[in-house]
Amino acid sequence: MPGAADRSGALPDATGHLDRLIAYSETLHAHPETAWEEHRAARWTAELLEEFGFAVRTSYLGFPTALHASYGSGRRRVGFIVEYDALPGLGHACGHNLIAAMSAGAAIALRPWAERFDLRVDVIATPAEEGGGGKIEMLDAGAFRDLDLALMAHPAPVDAPRAEPYAVAHDHVRFTGRAAHAAAYPHEGRNANDAFVVAQVALGLLRQQLPPGTRVHGIQTVGGQAPNAIPEVTEGRWYTRAETLAELEPLRDRVRRCFEAGALATDTALEFTPESQSYSEFRTDERALEIYTRHARALGRRLDAPAEQQTMNRASTDMGNVSRHVPAIHPYIGLGCFPVSNHQPGFAAACVGEAANRVIADGATLLARTAHEYFGPPADPPPGRVPAQV
């Protein structure tokens, strides 16, 4: 079994299987799959983990592109969380190929300590983080809840260990009016595009009254078919963000009323439909974060980037919902590419190559070392010191 030897006294290190992790990451990057469509990614992840002795369950909990892999049979359970969905039109511009490689690599690196630390090492691969709320649906189906610690790391322009994501609601908007010839019979139409314009103006005016720490943004995906036809149907996708779930719902109600205003003004019908359950704010396990941060510094990671460069740690994630049920961390690990940032084509390009390979090596090693110290026996006292008597 590759790399399974127990290195007594050593710390976990992912560099021994780095070439395999890089190949896996680059394969995911070259074949991006969007939310709920990650069939090849799930298969390649299963193949990787089976190579290293993990017992793998595909179509986990009935989700075709989720999987669960485990190594060991200990009473304590650490979970490394994989994401591998890509962005429509942008590929892996959020770097989920690197998330997958770091989490899988950390689990592989930790295997030699599973029996000694009474651990079961889990990898849980999750679909549809980019707006689909895959982890939330998996939580509802019973995933994650038996973990003693859940770990993952996310690529970013610079290192930012503490996750502080917004809670977010994702909504699909559809206006339905009545088509008509725009020159000959405009009075017979009900303009669904005008409804969207009214709503956008209302949202723009609303922003002046929004409290700090909120975000409202979205896109129109359907705007009509021909310039000489009154648009019968328009559609869009809209995100509302706030500091907490408790603050999110009142704000979302105000956003919905802006769309209702568009429908009222144009005599069209509105459908305002959630695309997923809302993503939560994050609850950080402070002990795990302290361990991760200390090892990151020891590994040479720079954690002192200016605050304005670290704001990827505000990005929403369905890992926040997991953190409400089990201890968790979600550090951001830097590619050193600022001002290029996530969800840009340049960031997708940065997620392969030398900097990406270092992120895989460091991220996988740091997650494994965090779990190693979190679950391991207390460190030996320094030489010459006598342990305190209890």
Structure explained in plain terms:
With 390 residues, this protein is of the alpha/beta class. The chain folds into 2 domains: 14-165 and 281-375, Zn peptidases (Aminopeptidase), CATH 3.40.630; 167-274, Alpha-Beta Plaits. 34% of the residues lie in helices and 18% in strands. The chain contains 10 helices and 12 strands. It has helices at 18-30, 39-51, 96-110, 134-140, 192-206, 245-266, 286-298, 319-323, 345-350, 354-375, and strands spanning 55-58, 67-71, 76-83, 119-126, 149-151, 154-156, 167-176, 215-222, 233-242, 269-274, 328-329, 332-334. The strands form 3 sheets. The protein has a 6-stranded mixed β-sheet, sandwiched between helices. It has a 4-stranded antiparallel β-sheet with strand order 8-9-7-10. The protein has a two-stranded parallel ribbon with strand order 6-12. α3 crosses α10 (354-375). The longest helix is centred in the middle third of the chain and has 22 residues, at 245-266. Mean pLDDT is 94; it is low at 1-9 and 380-390.
Structural class: alpha/beta
What is the oligomer described by this structure?
A: single chain
Overall average residue pLDDT: 94
User: What's the number of domains?
Assistant: 2
Family: Belongs to the peptidase M20A family.
Organism: Nocardiopsis changdeensis
Pfam families: M20_dimer, Peptidase_M20
InterPro entries: Amidohydrolase (IPR017439), Bact_exopeptidase_dim_dom (IPR036264), Peptidase_M20 (IPR002933), Peptidase_M20/M20A_hydrolases (IPR052030), Peptidase_M20_dimer (IPR011650), Xaa-Arg_dipeptidase (IPR017144)
